[in-house]
Amino acid sequence: ATVLTKDGRRMSKSLGTGINPLELIEKYGTDALRFGLAYQATALQDMRFNEDVIVMGQKFANKFWNIARFVLTKSGGEMSAEAPRPSSETEESRLLAKLSTTAKQVTKNIEQYKFSEAAHLLYDFTWHDFADKYIEYSKDKKTDDVKTALSHTFLTCLKLLHPFMPFVTEEIHSRLPLKNKKMLLVEEWPS
């Protein structure tokens, strides 16, 4: 695969048109670079490198930290990976159905080395379905269904995002009040 600059030239160390990943890591962070590269690395032969996508990865990592803070606050210090069983046709049941579909699609894409598609699915679900819709909906709700849906969805997203942002996700996981906690790296993959 060939990596191209924004203006369409091939990246080359000898021509001075390459990128230095260490500079990008210093500027945006390791996980932002990893996520941004996975997000834009499609199956096409040529990839146009876009630093804006690395910035998007940095903003996504920040958004995930904010989601973690909200879920921790809302859960009252009690989190469980156990899937809730809400009654049908509720916001919780819709969220959990979408989460299940997303987890299956992400897993399939990772197994088929389609990392860009997996990253896009995770980004869209986490930012739009979970944060923009469900978290906004849940802000004034205090039911057990809401708390367990938030915890379960967050922990599932954390595990699915781990291959793309291992440092951020492991750090967040280390701070969670979970019983019998292991490192996120060896936790069971969501099904």
| Main sheet specs | 2 strands, parallel
Instruction: State the total count of DSSP E strands.
Output: 2
Mean pLDDT: 87
Low-confidence stretches: none
* Helix proportion range: 55-70%
Q: What is the CA-atom radius of gyration, in angstroms?
A: 18 Å
Sheet with most strands: strand arrangement:
1-2
Order of helices and strands: EHHEHHHHH
Structural class by secondary-structure content: mainly alpha
Number of distinct helices: 7
The shape is globular
Query: DSSP strand (E) fraction?
Result: under 5%
* Head-to-tail CA distance between termini: 32 Å
Tell me what the structure shows:
A two-stranded parallel ribbon has the order 1-2. With 191 residues, the chain is mainly alpha-helical. It is globular, with a radius of gyration of 18 Å. Helix content is 61%, strand content 3%. α3 (51-75) packs antiparallel against α6. The protein has helices at 21-28, 30-40, 51-75, 91-111, 115-138, 144-161, 166-174, and strands spanning 2-4, 46-48.
Write the layout of secondary structure elements.
Elements: E1 2-4, H1 21-28, H2 30-40, E2 46-48, H3 51-75, H4 91-111, H5 115-138, H6 144-161, H7 166-174
Parallel strand pairs: 1-2
Helix pairs in contact: 1-2, 2-3, 2-5, 3-5, 3-6, 4-5, 4-6, 5-6, 6-7
